[in-house]
Every structure is written in structure tokens, then in C-alpha cells.
Amino acid sequence: MENLSLGLVLAAIINFGILFFAFRYFLWEKLANLLEERKKHLKASEEAEDLAKEKIERAEKEVEEILANARVKASEIEEKAEELSKQNTAKSLEKAEKEAEYIIESAKTNIEKDRLDMENNMRNKILDLSLKLSSKLFSKSEANKDFLDKELDLLTK
What's the chain's average pLDDT? Predict the structure, then answer.
């Protein structure tokens, strides 16, 4: 500390003062503005982040609501589909029953028609056979034919 002179200390203090005032005059406002802008930017970033988080939370809630509504609608659609299926099944069964009834009635009608045809054929064959027998036994075939027609009508009714 012996080499330390008052002039050197004073020169160091003056140099420091000049540097301080030059720094303050040329750079202090720019640095202060830069720091202030940085603070504003950080604050805006935080606000934007908070806003984004809120929007994400709202969007997630909306997604949950939409999914819940979609599930409800899907279950309603399933119920309607089941109901329509049951109605279609009932209609198909009803239609099949009507077709079956029609087929049965048609078959009955055909059977009755066939029975009547068979009776007429049998009557005609019996009449022919009787005419042949009576013509061999009797000489007047016209009288026998009228008699046999009457008898056959009585037998078939």
C-alpha cells in the first residue's frame, strides 16, 4: 500500500465517474427501456400462456360435453334402430302370415276344385259305364240315360 498515491486513487475515481456518467448518458435509458420491454414481453407471455391454458380448459370441457351429447344421441339412435327393427320384424311376420293364409286358401280352393273335377269325372265315367251296361241290357238308351242322370244327381247331392 505504499505505492498507492492519492493522485492514482483520485484519477481512478474520476475515470469511474466519467465512465458512470457516459454509461448513464448513452446507455442507461436504452438499457432501462430494454429491461422494461423485456418485463412487458414476459408479462404478455405469461398472460398469453394463462389465456391459452384457459382456452385449452374450455376446449377440453366443450369436447367432454360434445362427447357426452354424442353418446346420448348414439344411445337414442340405437334405441330407435332397435324399435324400427322390431317394427320391421313384426311387419315381416304379419306379411308372412298373410302370405301363408293366402297360400292355404289357394290350396284349399285348388283342392276343392280338384275334388269337384274328380267327382264330375267319376260321375261321367259311372254314367258312361251305366249307359253301356243298360244299352246291353235294355234296348232304349235315351230313357235309361235320363233315369241315370237323375239318380246320379241325387247321389252326389
Answer: 86
Buried b / exposed e over 38-70, threshold 16 CB at 10 Å, is eeeeeeeeeeeeeeeeeeeeeeeeeeeeeeeee
Extents of the domains making up the chain: 7-156
Query: pLDDT per residue over 23-78, tens digit each?
Result: 888 888 888 899 999 999 999 999 999 999 999 999 999 999 999 999 999 999 99
pTM greater than 0.85 (yes/no)? no
In our burial notation (b when 16+ CB lie closer than 10 A, e otherwise), range 127-157 reads: eeebeeebeeeeeeeeebeeebeeebeeeee
Query: What span, in angstroms and rounded, lies between the C-alpha atoms of 146 and 127?
Result: 10
Neighbours of 77 (CB within 10 A): 10
